[in-house]
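Entry for the shared binder. Reason: the reviewer on the internal report wants the predicted structure included alongside the sequence.
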Amino acid sequence: MKLIGHRSWKRRSQIELAHYYLGEAGVLSYSTHFAKFMSISLLVSIIEQYLENYGPDRLDLLKYNIFPSLRKNAKTDKDVLAIERLSEKINSLSL
């Protein structure tokens, strides 16, 4: 059996799928999977759209789960700044 070495999804398909899982389905923890193949700054912008739908406990769990993956997959300064912005936003909502 041969495994596919890369994903060849169109960007639009990635965005639609991310919106479904992170927004409509309400599974923010799936963000760690999207961080492996999506632009981190784009992923963060999608996550930010849904943060206010979650209570402080779920936001704390999200922080615990997603930030290691986001940091590991950040490739640019723009990605790093987006992660910092997300962290600040989550912290402000968790108060």
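Summary line for the report: Residues 11-94 form one domain.
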